[in-house]
Each structure stands twice: as structure tokens, then as C-alpha cells.
Amino acid sequence: SLVSVRWYTESTQNRGKMPRKDAKPRGRMTAYAFFVQTCREEHKKQHPDENVVFAEFSKKCAERWKTMLDKEKKRFHEMAEKDKKRYDTEMQDYVPPVGEKRGKKRKQIKDPNAPKRSLSAFFWFCNDERGKVKGANPEMTVGEIAKELGRRWSDISPELKNKYEQMAEKDKARYERDMTAYKKKPKGGMPMPPMAPKPESDDDEDDDDEGDDDDE
């Protein structure tokens, strides 16, 4: 059975040192994240010398969370709501250092014509399983879903894993073909004829001419 949980909250809410004034606010936590953290701290108190296998521990926490009554979860939802208010308040006062912008980091500009990268066997597996995990555990964050997918991947049968590995190999071959073709094209992605010397005469009008008067 899972570790019995004593619902202590203040120690988890006020953990750690006071943040520096210029430090970016710590991200907010979900109710489920507070629950898992509480379980881990309680387990560590009871078994200080035991090595915890996170995947197994996370699975037990997820199973326990699914069977809990709403009134048992209420305290964790209150903790999450309080943490959200804390985060929102801190973010209002937060001034990013010079060169850093609020919100997400800027992504590197990519060529929209570049071939879509191939997916690994694990990513193909995630595409099939992510919806199932999210449906069964609506409280989970993106990070928690990723951990659960990792646990499921480690538990699948060799036959099923082989299926996804074949999908990955097929996609890799597709990507290599597309990249070979892409590299033969100029940066714009459209094939161009070989460059010819520009005529010196202005007799003929073409698309490159700005106008009839080129003399200054």
C-alpha cells in the first residue's frame, strides 16, 4: 500500500530559502504535484535510508490519487490555488534582466520549407498514448504526463516496442529523402535556374528593372 499521507501543508508551502530579489519567481504547482511532493517527504521521513525508484513511486502516487475522494483532494487544490496567487503576484513585480523577455524564450527562426524532423520510436508511442494518459489523469501537468509516458514505455512488450521502432525507421528514411531534396534547393525552397550574367543594356525591360532612368 502507498505511504500513508499526513496532511501537513505549511512545511511544503514555505519550503526553501527566501528567493533573491532579482530571481525569477518559482513556477506554480498543481494540486497533484503538491500531493506527490507530500508523499515523497513523508516517505523520506519514514524511510530515510531507502533508495526510491521514482517511476515506481510515481505510479503508486497516481493510483492513490485516482482513488482519493474530492474532500481528500480539497486541501491540495487549496494549496495549488494559493501557490497560483503567489506566482501571479510575484510575476507582476518581476522585472526580467536586460536581454531577457517575460514569458517564453524566443525560438530560433526555422525555414518553413524545411522537412519535418523524424520521430523516435518513443515519440510515436507518445503520440498514441498521450491522449489516454491525459483522459485518465486530467489533473496531471505536462511534465507529469511525460513521466507517466516514460514509465509506460519502459513497461511495454518487446513486440509492441518493435512496432514503434519500425515506424521510427520508416520515418527516418522519409526524413533523409526529404533532406536530400531540400539541400539541393536554394534557401527559399524553390528551385532556380543557373545564374546568367546580367545584361549591360537597358533596352529590354525585365522584372529586375526599377525604372527607365538608372543614371544619377
Low-confidence stretches: 1-15, 188-193, 201-216
Q: What is the level-2 CATH architecture name of the largest domain?
A: Orthogonal Bundle
Residues in β-strands, percent: under 5%
**Secondary structure: number of strands:** 0
Average per-residue pLDDT, rounded, comes to 75
The coarse overall form would be: extended
Question: Which CATH class of the largest domain?
Answer: Mainly Alpha
**How many separate domains make up the residues?**
2
The biggest sheet, with number of strands, parallel, antiparallel or mixed sense and barrel status, is:
none
> Could you please say which CATH topology of the largest domain applies here?
DNA Binding (I), subunit A
- CATH-defined superfamily of the largest domain: High mobility group box domain
Distance from N terminus to C terminus (CA atoms, Å) equals 88 Å
How many alpha or pi helices?
Answer: 7
Which structural class should the secondary elements be placed in?
mainly alpha
Radius of gyration, taken over Cα atoms and rounded to an integer in Å? 28 Å
One letter per element, helices H and strands E, the order comes to HHHHHHH
Helix content: 40-55%
Describe the structure.
53% of the residues lie in helices and 0% in strands. It has 216 residues and is mainly α. The chain folds into two domains: 1-97, High mobility group box domain (DNA Binding (I), subunit A), CATH 1.10.30; 114-182, High mobility group box domain (DNA Binding (I), subunit A, Orthogonal Bundle), CATH 1.10.30. Helix 2 crosses helix 3 and helix 2 (31-46) crosses helix 4.
